[in-house]
Design a protein that fits this description.
Largest interface: A-B, 36 and 35 residues
Mean pLDDT of chain B: 93
Number of strands of chain A: 7
Low-confidence stretches of chain B: none
Strand content of chain B: 5-15%
Number of domains of chain B: 1
Oligomer: heterodimer
Helix content of chain B: 40-55%
Largest sheet of chain B: 3 strands, antiparallel
Distance between the termini of chain A: 49 Å
Shape of chain A: globular
Largest sheet of chain A: 5 strands, mixed
Number of helices of chain A: 3
Strand order of the largest sheet of chain A: 1-2-5-4-3
Structural class of chain B: alpha+beta
Number of helices of chain B: 16
Structural class of chain A: alpha/beta
Low-confidence stretches of chain A: none
CATH architecture of chain B: Orthogonal Bundle
Distance between the termini of chain B: 38 Å
CATH topology of chain B: Cytochrome-c3 Hydrogenase, chain B
Strand content of chain A: 25-35%
CATH superfamily of chain B: Cytochrome-c3 Hydrogenase, chain B
Number of strands of chain B: 8
Order of helices and strands of chain B: EEEHHHHHEEHHHHHHHEEEHHHH
Chain lengths: 136, 360
């Protein structure tokens, strides 16, 4: 079984894992997500998905991304704030992230650097960010 | 000569709307592209506009085949947030419904596979058996599609007399063992049609992070019921069928064997049904601020839910759903590469795709 502290150290996260509602979370700021993906895959973790959510109701523009991985049946989450200008894409390192990055762009207009912004759920020409702002 | 063929989004070869764009050299598929989103209903966004109870009913409608796994995953997430223990009897009833759902889903898929391999009698036989599974689900829940069984902390209906359910499941087990399983595990015709077709090698299955029977047919042995047990699975004995060939035949075999395992699990869950409460808390449940994650092994593989509450409002602040087809479908591009064009409908169907789930 891989040691969680080793994983955090290898991805350059100084913070400690915390247990929240039954699963371990790591919340480093300014995380290099490409390195994170490389480290997780090197430990034979399986990519599960990414959850995007607004930082708070008061700050709907500030977004956080939670990267979920399965490590030998254990669900690990690494959450980080989206830097200004977007987030690095992990698609090249982790092809399984292709659809969810495109979906997050469709729904929240998050830009993923280094990846072609191709719609997944929206039709070509529709504006991304359909989950942002108030309903009409 | 290279040519492109578009199938869908609305096409008789597809059970639901999506689009396959194939680049072919004569009869051989060189590249495949998938387009989804034709069923996009913004269910996650709608969940933020419902109170927690109404959101359960909404999540049940993410999928018309595996409706129960969605309420189960969602309720498990809410139970983790509220730190609720589910009564043992309710945990067993959840297993019964989940396995009956797997049974009817796999039998439905077996019928479709039968039709696609040119064995239409098998389609009729499977759908007849599936009706009987749905009769059992109706006898327990009062419903045939959206069972409305899960509630936060328990279930909405008890199984007060397991005997007729046990008898119906024993009859089903005999019928599937006699009529369905041998066709997909031993028939020379099925082997000739499906062996070596639509191969997903182990390395690509791992790289694409596929789940469920699609992964297990390529040698990835994980099943969430075993790897991260929930409900009452830890107390029950079952085998996780794994094949290594990665072709359509392997996917057929894994599901066929899982049908028998589901019967075995239902039988055990009913035999060991504990006495006591099944409803869980009857007072209003409060959800503190935070995010909880939940996973369930649905018929097509791992279903993942992330549920966030703000601790103030009676609506979820965020619900994110990752369905198994969402994880599996990109692998169809690999399965189709180098395949015969005529095999494309069977290959795409062999992951048992559900686009209602995928698009949400």
């Amino acid at each position: 079984m891989s040691d969680l502290e080793d994983i955090a150290r290898e991805m350059g996260a100084g913070e400690a894992w915390e247990e929240a509602n039954g699963s371990p979370w790591l919340r480093p700021e300014g995380l290099d997500v490409r390195r994170m993906a490389q480290v997780m895959l090197a430990h034979d973790a399986r990519f599960v998905t990414i959850t995007a959510r607004a930082e708070s109701e008061d700050e709907p523009a500030a977004m956080r991304l939670s990267y979920h991985w399965d490590l030998e049946g254990r669900l690990l989450t690494i959450e980080t704030r989206i830097a200004e200008g977007g987030m690095a894409s992990i698609r090249e390192t982790c092809p399984a992230a292709d659809w969810i990055e495109r979906e997050i762009h469709d729904c929240f207009a998050v830009e993923f650097q280094g990846a072609r912004p191709e719609p997944l759920l929206l039709r070509p020409g529709q504006s991304p960010g359909v989950f942002r702002g108030e309903d009409e | 000569m290279t040519h492109r063929i578009s199938i869908g989004p609305y096409h008789p070869a597809l059970e639901e709307p999506y689009k396959l764009e194939l680049t072919c050299d004569g009869e051989v598929v060189r590249e495949a592209e998938l387009r989804i989103g034709f069923n996009f209903r913004a269910v996650e966004r709608l969940a933020e506009r419902r109170n927690f109870t109404a959101a359960i009913a909404l999540m049940e409608r993410v999928c018309g085949i595996c409706s129960n796994v969605h309420t189960l995953s969602f309720c498990q997430g809410l139970e983790r947030l509220a730190e609720l223990e589910v009564p043992p009897r309710a945990r067993h009833i959840r297993v019964v419904i989940a396995e009956l759902e797997r049974l009817h889903s796999h039998v439905l898929w077996a019928g479709i596979a039968g039709k696609l391999i040119g064995f239409k009698t098998m389609f009729m036989a499977c759908f007849e058996i599936r009706e009987k599974v749905m009769d059992v689900l109706e006898a327990i829940s009062g419903n045939r599609v959206n069972y409305a069984m899960n509630r936060v902390g328990g279930v909405n209906r008890d199984i007060d007399d397991p005997a007729p359910i046990q008898k119906a499941v024993a009859d089903l087990e005999r019928e599937v063992a006699r009529e369905i399983v041998p066709v997909f595990t031993r028939s020379r015709t099925t082997r000739a049609r499906c062996q070596g077709v639509g191969v997903l090698p182990l390395e690509e299955a791992r790289a694409l992070a596929v789940v469920g029977p699609t992964a297990r047919a390529s040698g990835v042995g994980q099943d969430i019921r075993r790897a991260a047990p929930y409900a009452a699975y830890e107390e029950l004995e079952f085998t996780v069928p794994v094949e290594t060939a990665g072709d359509v035949l392997a996917r057929l075999r894994v599901r066929a064997l899982e049908i028998l395992e589901s019967c075995r699990i239902v039988r055990q869950a009913l035999e060991t049904l504990p006495p006591g409460d099944w409803r869980g808390p009857t007072d209003e449940v409060e959800f503190p601020e935070g995010t909880a994650l939940s996973r369930v092994e649905g018929p097509r593989g791992e279903v993942f839910y992330s549920v966030t509450a703000d601790g103030e409002n009676d609506t979820p602040r965020r619900v994110h759903v990752r369905t198994p087809t969402y994880a599996n479908m990109p692998a169809v591009k690999v399965m189709l590469r180098g395949a015969q064009l005529a095999d494309a409908p069977l290959i795409q169907a062999s992951v048992d795709p559900c686009y209602s789930c995928t698009d949400r």
